[in-house]
Amino acid sequence: VFAHVEQVPGDPILGLTDAYNADSRATKVNLGVGIYYDEDGRIPLLAAVRKIEEQLAAAGRPRGYLPIDGLATYTNATRALVFGAESELVAAGRVATTQTIGGSGALRVGAELLAQSLPHATVAISNPSWENHRAVFGAAGFTVKDYTYFDAATHGVDFDGMLADLAKLEPGTVVLLHACCHNPTGADLSQAQWKQVAALLKERGLFPFIDMAYQGFDKGIAEDGAAVRIVAEAGIDSFIVANSYSKSFSLYGERVGALSVVAADAGQTKAVQSHIKRIIRTIYSSPSTHGAALVAGVLGSSELRALWEDELGQMRTRIQDLRSGLVNKLAELGAPEFNFIQQQAGMFSYSGLSREQVEKLRQDYGIYAVGTGRICVAALSSKSLDYVAKAVYEVSRG
Ligand code: LMR
């Protein structure tokens, strides 16, 4: 049966971790995958998470099956976090939120749902986008197109190009948008630009699918969620938001995400939810308990929530400090052209390094970055900054 099966290339992001783990050099640095590491190179266990975990362990909870769509306290808290506590859509019963296996699970379940409902399953993703967007939608049967997004000359958004491309899409096309901390470029839209995009999506009958994997990693929970509220306020009757707690709660391996589908009225929303449950039942039946219980426990306690927001703020500030540290060191070495790294939002920097330069970083220095030149700034530390800056400087000078 498998005699003709040929090896396919490893995942462009997660495959880097395998290569990094196999590298025996003591100086190696993994700037590939999007994970926040602390000064000691460890993935932090947030104090708010530790506290709720202790409480849950002491309570000795039984581990029955969760409902197909997940833990209700988790989905309710997520809805409020993503749409805002005062959301009119939520009050009108127009948001169906489902616990999913990470943000990737939300994307895939959402894509499966749309593939069933759309006359032509076409999605437009930003150029560039997270490597997995194309693969996830492709696997759900979508035709995947690009829309202009990044301007390599300014290291910012080519907004006119983006609007022009969106305006050419056929009505009913799904448009995948990054709410904040654009992955991989770190180049985000301003709120004024979001309003223009939302108006265009409505006018053209395009379907917004917002991926929000980094809420709280740029400016704060409410600020980073602005895109969702702007799309809601534009009066678009149906759209989707996929969100993830991997980064914001440092709960990567717990796979805690959610899919929120907005439909035109409460009746439609209920019907949509029944389809989502059917999709999930045929893939993994129901989600797992632990990660969702942690997030629900923290968000449901005003004391733990405040502690979490404080810890999230500390991660955010430290990433900004790492950005300036890198920029300053590169400037000291004589490479001020990297100053733009300071302006980018979130975990990543689209460094502008070519595939060959990335390869050289890996071969000569044991520094792992995504082939497109994306580096994870949140994986740097004050200990690795000098080494990484020197290496980036050297490869950039050929
Ligand atoms: C990333 O882009 O590195 C993260 O979102 C992790 C992943 O699954 O790719």
From TrEMBL:
EC number: 2.6.1.-
Top EC class of this enzyme: transferase
Keywords: Aminotransferase, Pyridoxal phosphate, Transferase
Ranges where the Aminotransferase class I/classII large domain occurs: 27-391
SUPFAM superfamilies: PLP-dependent transferases
Reported cofactor(s): pyridoxal 5'-phosphate
Pfam families, per the entry: Aminotran_1_2
Any one GO MF annotation of this record: pyridoxal phosphate binding
GO annotation (BP), single: L-phenylalanine biosynthetic process from chorismate via phenylpyruvate
Keyword Transferase: yes
GO cellular component: cytosol
Similarity comment: Belongs to the class-I pyridoxal-phosphate-dependent aminotransferase family.
Quaternary structure annotation from Swiss-Prot or TrEMBL: Homodimer.
PANTHER family tied to this protein: AROMATIC-AMINO-ACID AMINOTRANSFERASE, ASPARTATE AMINOTRANSFERASE
Official protein name in the record: Aminotransferase
